[in-house]
Amino acid sequence: MSGPSIRLVPLGEQHVPALSRALEDGEIVRNTRVPEPPPPGFAATWLARYEEGRRTGEREAFAVESKSGEFLGVALSPKIERETQTAELGYVVVPDARGRGVASEALRQLTEWAFEELGMIRLELVIAVHNEPSKAVARRCGYEREGVLRSVYFKQARREDVEIWSRIAEDA
User: Is residue 140 part of a domain?
Assistant: First the structure.
C-alpha cells in the first residue's frame, strides 16, 4: 500500500513564507529544536543554516509538497556523519496535513534517500518522549526504539527526555 502522493524538494527561499507560518504551530515548536517563541526571521535563518550544511554535506532539508506544490512540512537531516555513515533524520507536518499519512510517507522517502543517495548505514530519530504521533510514524517506517536519553534535550532553560529510534541498512 502506497502513501499519499507527495514529493521531497530541496528546501529553498520559496518555502520561507510557508515555513514561517508552520512555525506558528505550537505542536511543531514544542516537539522540535525551534526556539520558543521563534525569533523574527527564524525561518530564513534556519534555511541559511541548512543551505550551508548542504554545501558542506553535513545536513540537508527538504520541503514536503503535494504533487500540486502545496507546502505540507519539512523532512530533514540535521546531522550527516559521512565517516560513520550515520545520519539523524526528522520530519514535521503542518496541521492541515496531519492524519493523512504525510509524515510516514515523508519519512519513508527521506529514509530511502539517506540509504540510497548518501550510503548511510545507520539512521536515527530523536523523538520527545511525549510525542506519540511521531513515535507511531517511526514504528510504521520500520524504526526501532532503542531507549530513552534522560535529560538530554535542552531548550529554553529546561531539560527533557527524548527517545532514540534507529534503522540500519540491514533492516531494509
Answer: no
Number of domains in the chain: 1
Kindly report the backbone phi and psi dihedral angles of residue 73, in degrees, each rounded to the nearest multiple of 5, phi listed first: 155, -160
> CA 164, CA 168: separation in Å to the nearest integer?
13
Cis bond before residue 37 (omega within 30° of 0): yes
In a domain, residue 136? The reply is no
Query: What is the helix (H) or strand (E) element at residue 114, kind and residue range?
Result: helix 102-116
CATH of the domain at 17: 3.40.630.30
The 10s digit of each residue's pLDDT in 23-82 is: 999 888 888 888 888 999 999 999 999 999 999 999 999 999 999 999 999 999 999 999
